[in-house]
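Question (not urgent): is this output format expected?
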Amino acid sequence: MSMGREFLADYAWEIEQEKNYADAIWYEAQEKVWETKDGRRIPVEEMTTSHIKNTIAYIQRNWDVELYQPWLDVFNDELERR
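Got this back:
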């Protein structure tokens, strides 16, 4: 395999992995159950307002905002509902 074809194959694999990761994030957000860093799972509706705001800020500081947009939508919808 030529170096160009090998590069394209690797690049295609990376894109597919990123798509799979984005899909997984979207599906997790639809459950509306947030997993804390210590592994606890909390329904978003049971999170305190400050916890939701802190989580939004954490995502915006540390993660790819575009990738985690489904979660940001869930959190913002919950804040609006309140």
